[in-house]
Amino acid sequence: MTGIRVLLVDDHPVVRAGLRAMLGDFPGVSVVAEAADGDAALAELSKLHTLGEPVDLVLMDLQMGSGMDGVTATQKIKAGEAGAPPPPVLILTTYDTDADILAAVEAGASGYMLKDAPPEQIRQAVLSAAAGQTALAPEVAARLMGRIRNPSPVLSGREVQLLELLATGMSNRAIAKQLFISEATVKTHLVHIYSKLGVDNRTAAIATATQRRIIRGH
């Protein structure tokens, strides 16, 4: 596929400059706009659509300072909230935890790559995602396959999400409010989480989940 128009979304100007230079070396790929967070990305997509210059692919970071994060931006883009036909979104980040990968996939991302991947891997991912195919870094694909093949109990997406909130120090009540569920449901999830991780308290659950790269360290 040629003539791929890319919107580059990352909050670090130096990183964006490096990615722009790398993408510029890929035949048939051009960065037509940049954004520092999700809100700016939605605005750029809307503007380019109005100008009749649609984007073929969004290359999206996950964490972007105090601005809208990549998962939320991906959800909004795929829901058509930019006022433009939703282009594929390829996540390009430094994070490879289950929590991040699952959140991005559930948000509708077409691919998930790591920033330290060789340029040729990123080039192929750009081509695949722009063509409507799934593009996963080998490490990410291995983690997803591990979840499928692992005979031991695997945490559900909701349990991983709850663990992420738990790791920030939130109380059961605060978690219940955040996830729009009851405190009793939170406690039930915690029982299942403790059982699956082989622990008996919050601290141990967070430590074990972090060690296994189910969630990020906080």
Automatic annotation (TrEMBL):
UniProt cross-references to InterPro entries, sorted A to Z: CheY-like_superfamily (IPR011006), NreC/VraR/RcsB-like_REC (IPR058245), Sig_transdc_resp-reg_C-effctor (IPR016032), Sig_transdc_resp-reg_receiver (IPR001789), Tscrpt_reg_LuxR_C (IPR000792), WalR-like (IPR039420)
Endpoints of the signal sequence: none
Keyword entries, A-Z: DNA-binding, Phosphoprotein, Transcription, Transcription regulation
Modified residues (4-aspartylphosphate): D61
Coiled coil region boundaries: none
GO molecular function annotations of the record: DNA binding
Ranges for domain Response regulatory: 5-130
Highest taxon of source: Bacteria
Cited PROSITE patterns: HTH_LUXR_1, HTH_LUXR_2, RESPONSE_REGULATORY
PANTHER family: TRANSCRIPTIONAL REGULATORY PROTEIN NARL-RELATED, TWO-COMPONENT RESPONSE REGULATOR
UniProt name for this protein: DNA-binding NarL/FixJ family response regulator
